[in-house]
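Please annotate the following for my students:
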Amino acid sequence: MTVFLHITVTWTLLLTSTAAFTAPFSATPFARTRLHAAIMEAPVRTPETSDRVQQVRERFQQAAADAAAAKGCSLDTGDEWWRTPAANDQYRDIDSDAPLRVIVAGGGVAGLVTAAACHSKGMQVAIFEQASQYAPYGGPIQIQSNALRALERINPKVYEEIRAAGTVTADRVSGLKIGYKKGVFAGLGKQYEKGDWLVRFDTLKPALQAGLPATVVVDRPVIQQILLNHGIPEGTVRIKSRIASYEELGEGKGIKVCFLAPVFQYPTSS
């Protein structure tokens, strides 16, 4: 099924899931304030006990179950705001009663963060995600100190939940290891054995010096559910929906978006 969406706004953004939010913290007054106020203490590690391991597993399992149930997502009902054009085709004032409308293509981690950032600024957001659920694929994601600070600026609750769910890794040895034995050709380069360090770097001291939180690692489904639960309003993500094309209608007139829904149906077991 093909549905045309006519969205008329003063400025309309079409954001893809490859978008990312970063901030040059060292160049801002906010960062300098945090730097001067920072307490230079290393994070206290939670002991890796059997209870701690079980807690992490249960957190992942709950997030996976929520994802399978499409918690926080919705199917189309036919009366969504993005189906109706704005009152006129001219420029209009943007305020709380008539917010900027934003369409996000793709509901992965980057798309969810993009939507959370727009929502935090008072924008009206809809995410179109072609999958029918957030499958628990992929491994844990390392969230560096500057990314954590960016999340805090976007949504303090999301930041708190991410830090609470994360395992601090900044106080461990960080770097890149080689995964195979690398010989020397014609006497050039260096011989490496599998598991040798290619490079090591410090992720803790620079963070503490800049007044930033320590790097953490969080399972992907957990990050997604935190963003769904705390970063955007319920039902912002429209599952089984894929943007096929869009057309710019002219300056100040917004865009017309064509999307396909449903994209596919999973076969039911007999």
